[in-house]
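Tip: read the tokens left to right.
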């Protein structure tokens, strides 16, 4: 037996590691870094290697077994794992609430409202606090024993965090693969010739049904609990929400976006909230679940054949649909990139009719082997451009041909180029290609660039086709007659466009730089360039080395900027624009300005009305703040704009102060005065 001090140290390490896992997965409030956690873990691992008798089954080192399984044992659920009834719109939800009110005799019912995770349902059995079995839902009556795989999921405790564990507790919930983990896994799979997963749900299911737990251990899985099955020696609860709170104290993760709501209106508000933040979450949800919160009422309502009468899933409109590829065209982008686009038989996806889907680039079309005539699954998530997820192979008609990239630009007929090692094919004609020229102009007038309201995409196309715009400076030479003579334009609209053009002459240096459309110079880089050099001449004359002194500007971007300003055509356009009266306020030296937010960690979320996210970020940095992407206990403040999502929810949960746009504008104003 090892020295008692060593035994104590192993025990302390196990306790500390479990406590840190609880803080990380349940409270979402880690107090040590990942590196520090790894250091403690390695110390325990080394002790256990030297003294194997110290190993306990619930040690954090014991998550992976050493042998692949031969197959999965069948597990019969003591209490069936039911599925949920669905509603798909507000009327159906209202009708469901009405029925619950009639059956309970209540005027208004309290519901537990929860995100509906798109993962794999699982049952975890704890006996005297130890995880003894994990099983898939299967057909609801019999599932598969996936204990060895589930033990590798760090979010699932191997032992409950209590000195008085219940004799038997069955926790039910969903195993998910976070989107970030899914992307990273697929990237790894591509690089190592392994099979990629079509979506995070398949990835979670595939990983759990993996016969080699060592492989599951490498998959980034997580877990949220949502109900209790077998319960022996469990405290008495009146409400479902109390059960979920109790789970948290036991170290079992519960979704932080769960809420208790009242009545139909409360459910509807929650549904809309989840719909508005679903794209910001790091995991897929396909709807929300409402459960009658009072457990006695749940019992009263009982069960229909396959699902409880006390719960319902309100599903989001489907984000995937099946359709046919009519044609594959190519589109020319602003910087000459050639993007293949699938023209589709129109289909409704997530409530919107989709007719086109981006195919990204030649390699992507080849990899997915998308052909004209194929039946394909298309996906649309939020504002993201629809894309083809995969081909339905069984439905491929005879005689289809693999896609080949055209040799020439469909707009200007230049021979296309694909530099070695790059995925993108390009038209080398630059602004002499009409397509690139139109795109460059659309970018120039766009909201984050020169912000010329009323000069939209259609109008730009008309003006170029009519020969009225040969370079961006021509915008400032347009007159009322030229505009009013165009189709669908009257005198009044022409006047409004001219006013907007005039107004745009007073801009900022970052906007002007961004408007120029230099390759890989987005809003943030434009801000950094302006802040670093203070004036346009300094940027125009900067060497590649000097450009690389700017935050976020590496050798490639520096080259793009350097060559852009050495191009005689670009020099002429810039000079003409300045001659037309484009100007901006001088950027003051801010060295000795007060920095009221010095040292503060601030997170921005949602959209602001008066400025873009990157403008707000720069303004905060100028006030001395550090702007970070995620909310933690180290965050000093969250600035929330419109449609703020999970970051706001997390700030509220952690008690981090939340400020609004008005407050930010005040800080900027005060620092100026
Ligand atoms: N959030 C949540 N998801 N979900 C799925 N709650 C929930 N409840 C379920 C299912 C299948 O079943 C209840 C019958 C417990």
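Filled-in amino acids:
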């Amino acid at each position: 037996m090892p020295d008692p001090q060593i035994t104590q140290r192993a025990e302390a390490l196990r306790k500390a590691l479990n406590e840190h896992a609880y803080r990380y997965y349940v409270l979402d409030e880690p107090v040590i870094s990942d590196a520090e956690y790894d250091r403690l873990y390695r110390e325990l691992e080394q002790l256990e290697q030297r003294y194997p008798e110290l190993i306990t089954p619930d040690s954090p080192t014991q998550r992976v077994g050493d042998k692949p399984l031969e197959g999965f044992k069948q597990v019969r659920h003591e209490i069936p794992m039911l599925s949920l009834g669905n509603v798909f719109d507000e009327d159906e939800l209202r009708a469901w609430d009405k029925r619950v009110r009639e059956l309970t005799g209540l005027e208004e019912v309290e519901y537990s409202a929860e995100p509906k995770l798109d993962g794999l349902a699982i049952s975890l059995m704890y006996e005297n606090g130890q995880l003894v079995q994990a099983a898939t839902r299967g057909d609801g009556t019999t599932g598969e024993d996936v204990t060895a795989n589930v033990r590798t999921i760090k979010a699932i405790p191997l032992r409950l965090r209590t000195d008085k564990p219940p004799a038997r507790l069955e926790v039910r919930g969903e195993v998910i693969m976070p989107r970030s983990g899914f992307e990273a896994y697929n990237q790894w799979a591509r690089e190592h010739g392994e099979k990629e997963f079509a979506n995070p749900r398949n990835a979670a299911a595939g990983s759990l049904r993996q016969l080699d737990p060592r492989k599951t251990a490498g998959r980034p899985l997580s877990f949220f609990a949502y109900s209790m099955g077998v319960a022996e020696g469990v405290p008495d609860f009146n409400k479902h929400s109390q059960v979920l709170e109790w789970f948290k104290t036991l170290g079992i993760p519960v979704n932080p976006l769960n809420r208790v709501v009242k009545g139909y209106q409360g459910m509807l508000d929650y549904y809309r909230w989840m719909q508005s933040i679903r794209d910001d979450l790091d995991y897929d949800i396909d709807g929300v679940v409402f459960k009658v919160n009072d457990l006695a009422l749940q019992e009263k309502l009982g069960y229909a054949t396959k699902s409880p009468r006390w719960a319902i899933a309100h599903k989001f409109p489907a984000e995937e649909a099946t359709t046919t590829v009519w044609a594959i065209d190519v589109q020319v982008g602003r910087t000459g990139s050639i993007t293949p686009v699938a023209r589709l038989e129109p289909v409704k996806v997530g409530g919107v009719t989709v007719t086109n889907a981006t195919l990204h680039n030649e390699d992507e079309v080849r990899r997915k082997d998308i052909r004209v005539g194929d039946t394909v699954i298309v996906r649309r998530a939020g504002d993201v451009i629809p894309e083809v997820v995969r081909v339905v192979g069984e439905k491929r008609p005879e005689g289809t041909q693999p896609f080949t990239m055209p040799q020439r630009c469909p707009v200007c007929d230049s021979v296309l180029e694909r530099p070695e090692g790059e995925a993108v094919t390009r038209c080398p004609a630059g602004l002499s290609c009409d397509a690139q020229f139109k795109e460059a102009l659309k970018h120039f007038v766009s909201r984050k660039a020169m912000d010329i309201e009323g000069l939209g995409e259609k109008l730009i196309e008309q003006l170029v086709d009519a020969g009225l715009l040969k370079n961006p400076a021509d915008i400032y030479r347009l007159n009322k007659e030229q505009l009013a003579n165009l189709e669908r334009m009257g005198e009044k609209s022409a006047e409004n466009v001219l006013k907007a053009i005039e107004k745009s002459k007073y801009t900022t240096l970052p906007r002007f730089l961004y408007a120029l459309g230099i390759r890989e110079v987005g809003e943030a880089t434009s801000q950094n360039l302006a802040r670093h050099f203070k004036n346009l001449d300094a940027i125009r004359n900067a060497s590649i080395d000097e450009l690389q002194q700017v935050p976020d500007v590496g050798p490639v971007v520096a080259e793009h900027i350097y060559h852009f300003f050495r191009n005689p055509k670009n020099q002429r356009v810039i000079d003409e624009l300045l001659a037309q009266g484009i100007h901006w306020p001088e950027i003051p030296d801010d060295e000795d300005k007060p920095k009221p937010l010095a040292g503060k960690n601030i997170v921005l979320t949602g959209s602001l009305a008066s400025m873009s996210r990157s403008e707000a970020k720069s303004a905060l940095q100028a006030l001395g703040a550090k702007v970070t992407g995620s909310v933690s206990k180290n965050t000093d403040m969250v600035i929330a704009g419109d449609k703020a999502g999970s970051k706001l929810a997390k700030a509220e949960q952690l008690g981090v102060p939340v400020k609004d746009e008005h407050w930010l504008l005040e800080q900027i104003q005060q620092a100026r005065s």
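The pocket of 5U1 is lined by residues 82-84, 114, 116, 121, 226-227, 289, 308, 311 (CB under 6 Å). The chain is about 35% helix and 20% strand.
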